[in-house]
Write a structure and sequence with these properties.
Length: 490
């Protein structure tokens, strides 16, 4: 079954190709522009019925054409409207020129915009395809509008945002509401674009779904259950704990055991049949005082781990939370190279001096999940992290390809990337997930899913989504312990 159009993500280049294909198929492109303008005008009237003036900013391209249609429709609806244009509007061609010709209002240069009480701004300067910094006069205007707190409704995307990466190109409006057409772009989900868009509305202007779907690769999408539901294990009446998988979480020393316990609890709650904490002998007492359903096993060194791994049922592991950085972590990871592993926190940092040593261990079918935040990402992939031209999706995909791992590039706009080129942008995480120990819980959820047989990428993506849902259930003010207790299997 095909995804609804509103669930798809198209890059600006793909959306431009869809517009072109629609026109080539015989669809009236100006009619599409009219529908887009009508949607924005309707939003403005619905959201700001008391506006004393609609100031419509019109740019030099098709976004400007949308703006002229919005201005005409708002005036026809009885609103007070003034147009402020960037550049010479006489140079507008095609549909944009036609839209301007159909608008009786005469505009003035955007430098003459004067802030008035009761203004609502319609931002039709630049669309999602902007690929360079905004001109200085626009940057000045953006700062002026932001300082005044004037509400902005953006056409397609707030001017100054890169629709592909969500990055700010010099300066960008902070919109209260954004109306985009047919599908969202990655920049609507990636930070800071997501925050600057305000409330996002996706409006269907009538391009057939077959045309839209023909232009999207489908490799980049929002992280929703549709992306991984089919990989989830079926619930069966005739099962037992080993069929549901055995997850092992490594503990740190006696004074650093809490992180592993939170991971273990999350792994159990996410559906693993049984979970064991593998701890140094000196940490057994500290762990046992807080555990009931989770088992304990003493592992002091690599030799003990190597012996334990003779049990073929041990296939899924979490290493990193509270474990400690250094050779011991690297030795353990080396022994786990044929198993499924979530490498988090200290586990990641243990390979900062020679990341390639880690990548060489996990060739073949992807079975490693890496969970770096910005700092850890830069330790493993310093050159990729330093690439200022690449967006977060680009960086995550490059890292996944190099490491042959499912990479969870964490943040408010977490990106999950696969070595095969797939990437998912997560958008369901509440802001209060940013608390100590939250990442330990995430690692445990993913470990529990790996134990149940999910492939690395699907386990990573499902884990991130379930982590966000647990955050919503736990609510504001949550601690990591609260979060782990609110994890539920899908």
């Amino acid at each position: 079954m095909s995804k609804p159009l509103a669930d798809l993500l198209l890059t600006p280049v793909e959306m431009a190709a869809a517009d072109k294909a629609a026109a080539e198929s015989g669809i009236d492109s100006y009619g599409l522009m009219e529908k887009a303008g009508a949607a924005v005008a309707a939003a403005a009237l619905r959201l700001y019925p008391g506006a004393q003036r609609f100031a419509v900013f019109c740019g030099p391209g098709n976004n400007g054409g949308d703006g002229y249609i919005v201005a005409r429709l708002l005036q026809e609806s009885g609103g007070r409207v003034e147009i402020f244009h960037l550049g010479n509007p006489e140079k507008l061609k095609g549909d944009a020129g036609r839209a301007r010709a159909a608008c009786a209002l005469k505009g003035q240069d955007i430098a003459r915009y004067d802030q008035q009480q009761g203004d609502v701004i319609i931002d039709g300067l630049f669309g999602a395809g902007l690929a360079r910094d905004v001109p200085s006069e626009v940057a000045d205007l953006i700062h002026k509008v932001g300082k005044a707190g004037t509400p902005v409704i953006a056409v397609d995307l707030p001017s100054g945002l890169d629709g592909r990466t969500g990055a700010v190109l010099g300066a960008a409006f902070r919109a209260a509401h954004t109306v985009t057409f047919m599908t969202r772009k990655p920049g609507h989900l990636l930070m800071p674009g997501r925050e600057l868009c305000g409330e996002l509305e996706v409006f269907d202007i009538g391009i057939p779904g077959r045309i839209i779907r023909a232009q999207t690769s489908g490799l980049v999408a929002e992280n929703t259950p549709a992306a991984w539901r089919a990989a989830m294990p079926a619930e069966q009446v005739e099962t037992h704990k080993y069929k549901r998988g055995h997850l092992v979480v490594f503990s740190g020393e006696a004074s650093k055991t809490g992180a592993a316990r939170m991971s273990a609890t999350a792994g159990l709650k996410s559906g693993a049949g049984l979970v064991t904490i593998a701890a140094p002998v000196e940490a057994l007492a500290a762990n046992s005082a807080h555990l009931t359903a989770v088992m304990l096993h003493a592992i002091d060194d690599a030799a003990a781990l190597e012996d334990w791994l003779k049990d073929a049922r041990l296939q899924s592991f979490v290493l990193g939370p509270g474990f400690g950085i250094g050779k011991r972590a690297r030795d353990f990871v080396s022994l786990l190279r044929e198993r499924h592993l979530v490498l988090d926190a200290d586990g990641i940092s243990s390979f900062k001096d020679d990341p390639q040593e880690l990548f060489e261990l996990f060739k073949g079918e992807p079975r490693l999940v890496l969970t770096p935040h910005d700092g850890e990402f830069a330790r493993l992939f310093p050159d990729i992290a330093a690439d200022k031209k690449a967006g977060k999706v680009d960086k995550a995909l490059a890292a996944a390809s190099r490491s042959n791992a499912a990479v969870i590039y964490k943040g408010a706009d977490t990106v999950i990337a696969s070595p095969d080129g797939r990437a998912l942008i997560n958008a369901n995480a509440p802001v209060w997930l940013a608390t100590a120990g939250s990442g330990d819980v995430l690692a445990g959820i993913i470990g529990g899913l790996l134990a149940q047989g999910l492939p690395a990428f699907e386990a990573a993506a499902a884990g991130v989504w379930l982590h966000g849902e647990a955050g919503h259930r736990a609510g504001k003010g949550l601690t990591a312990e609260d979060l782990a207790a609110h994890v539920l299997p899908f």
